[in-house]
Amino acid sequence: MTSASFYPIGTPLQPWGAAEKQAWLAAQVRHRSYADDVVARVDRLRSRFDVSEYGRLVYGDETFPQLAIRSRNWNDALPTILVTGGVHGYETSGVHGALQFVEQHGEDYAGRVNLLVVPCVSPWAYERIHRWNPNAIDPNRSFRENSPSEESAALLRLVAPIRDKALVHIDLHETTDTDETEFRPALAARDGKPTAPEGIPDGFYLVGDTEDPQPEFQQAIIAAVEKVTHIAPPDENNEIIGSPVVAHGVINYALRDLGLCTSITKARYRTTTEVYPDSPRATPQQCNDAQVAAVRAAIDFALGQVAR
């Protein structure tokens, strides 16, 4: 049963207008630095990889360069791998896991694949530890033509040349306790809808594509991550966050219909990782390591299939 959940902005069951969105924006606080945490680490990679600014976000008096990391000596004859993190800026290990993968393992794939890594799609939200951009828009429901989210639109422009060529796209996310306490109530308040608790799964899981689930690919990633951290079990309804569990640690979404990031290419192998950083059984470093293990397993499985 659903019920209206209290949220301190707006009137229950009435969608927000401009005044409510402005009140929400005024309540957001900067907690960390994109320049220090992300840009500085990307800059240190310039000697080993090609780094480009694929866009520039301007929000009030703040400007954020949008950065992409590419394999040096890009070769169109090689398979292309897309790794994205920080679509939801508050999901920390998505950002730091993407960077750690490039730092520690990016060169392992030189001459075998083209890597395109975007470690932080949503820098404003990274600093505010939030899910939305300043316009109260969720970038990960906005990957479609004429996107209302500049974060999403810029990424769509970046990947357009590889849209039909990518072999793998892995998008790095987290599910956190604040999904239940802050972000789901905020979403319901913004849209004037009722909400109900869905629960937070304790562990890592994947979100595949309902239209092309690639179960062997998903299970190869789960097997690799299980060596690093625990996999989320299903709830009493055999679901994770309200979706049926189709295999160990895997649920599926209709990616394109929902405008999710992993719908932006026609890659054969696509998945979204979900790490649980609030678990008493996992540390922040384990969460980063789990993201890295997932990326490596995704690439290795796909290359193994291409080699057959």
Automatic annotation (TrEMBL):
Segments forming domain Peptidase M14: 30-306
Family annotation (Gene3D superfamilies): Zn peptidases
GO biological process: proteolysis
InterPro entries xrefs: AstE_AspA_cat, Peptidase_M14
Pfam family for this entry, one: AstE_AspA_cat
Protein name: Peptidase
Keyword Zinc among UniProt keywords: yes
Cofactors demanded by this protein: Zn(2+)
One GO molecular-function entry: metallocarboxypeptidase activity
Highest taxon, organism lineage: Bacteria
Keywords: Hydrolase, Metal-binding, Zinc
Region called Disordered, residue ranges: 189-209
Family: Belongs to the peptidase M14 family.
Coiled coil ranges: none
